[in-house]
Amino acid sequence: MTDNHVHSETATETAESRTVDMKLEVAVIPVSDVDRAKRFYGGLCWRLDADFVRSDGSRAVQFTPPGSPGSIHLGTTSALLLIVSDIEAARAELLGRGVEVSDVFHPGAGPNGRLTGLDPERRSYASFASFSDPDGNGWLLQEVTARLPGRVDTDVTMFNSSTELAAALRRAGAAHGEHEKRTGGQRDENWPDWYAAYLVAEQAGEALPS
User: How much is the pTM?
Assistant: First the structure.
């Protein structure tokens, strides 16, 4: 058996056993002066996605390099952030692989600014879980189901798997069905354009077509 065949089998087994997409989206970069770092990355013409104070008093500043699907946070310690669409399913998958994962938590007036459990309103960006590798590198899972406005470039629409694309098409199909009902039940010959506008708007966090 050749090495290429072994690698092919391993890749196939991994793809078939994976059930939850975990997208490496943010790297937290430790900085000593947030304002100074903000001026530096702003000077590079990187897109400023956020600058606000969290409920625990810490500051969240995020930049995205031009054309990049990943971003950086300016923080005090390094960490890597994975985006998932279902944090409970992602946590269960990691536990099934023998990984020690924290309970799901959300921001609140608890220890370290956290409360155990899903965000009560299941808001996008508000539910988390964490784990570490054997060398102590920290990973944070964050559930994102709808993007904030301006978070995604409107001229760049990306899907990382056929499963993700199929799910987006199903959402677009259901919304388009409602659109046809509102227009008298007539078949929309321009449905490809409508689907395309829906997919782009959904990823960019903009108003969806009606």
Answer: 0.62
